[in-house]
From TrEMBL:
Swiss-Prot/TrEMBL domain comment: The DHHC domain is required for palmitoyltransferase activity.
Superkingdom of origin: Eukaryota
Recorded topology in the membrane: Multi-pass membrane protein
PROSITE patterns in the cross-refs: DHHC (PS50216)
Protein name: Palmitoyltransferase
Subcellular location: Membrane
GO cellular component terms, semicolon-separated: membrane
Origin species: Octopus sinensis (East Asian common octopus)
């Protein structure tokens, strides 16, 4: 039998944090599309640039949601006892769950199991960040940071455009 790589932690606090994270991402998308984008394109009549910059933000949003979901639903690589027994090496036994633990494995009190190369249990993704899903977690952080930087840049340009329009009619 092949083991499924699908994993979901049934923790109410973590599930609420995940829903709140998705709401924040969708609110950022809404704010960008309704508030920031019109200000950003006040002086730009060119439709190609509007499509390009809007599509870029949409792709960042979709990639952020995908990497968040992948981090949340992927198994962080729990300690597999069959692999340990066949290697012939000495391993520690977890004092909490009584399973075999390789080096750098830690027991997560929320997931109730030992996780290899565990970084931390993140309530915002409702999962442990471990050996197998740290890539998706770092991508999630990168996409959220990129969305934030892009929004600040677009809002700054939009405010500059707005001040140029407002001050253009005032003689100095």
């Amino acid at each position: 039998m092949s083991k499924s790589n699908f994993w979901f932690v049934k923790d109410l606090g973590g599930i609420l944090c995940c829903i709140f994270t998705w709401i924040l991402i969708l609110f950022a998308l809404f704010t960008f599309l309704i508030v920031v984008r019109p200000l950003f394109f006040i002086n730009s009549p060119e439709i190609k640039s509007k499509i390009f910059y809007t599509s870029l933000y949409l792709f960042l949003t979709l990639f952020a949601i995908f990497s968040h979901t992948k981090t949340m639903l992927s198994d962080p690589n729990e300690s597999n006892q069959d692999t340990f027994l066949s290697s012939g090496r000495k391993y520690l036994v977890c004092s909490i769950c009584s399973s075999l633990k390789p080096a750098r494995a830690h027991h997560c009190s929320v997931c109730k199991r030992c996780i290899r190369k565990m970084d931390h249990h993140c309530p915002w993704v409702n999962n442990c960040v471990g050996e197998a899903n740290i890539k998706y977690f770092l991508l999630f952080l990168f996409y959220i940071a990129s969305m934030s930087i892009y929004s600040v840049f677009a809002a700054s340009i939009g405010l500059l455009n707005l001040t140029k329009i407002e001050t253009s009619g005032i003689p100095y």
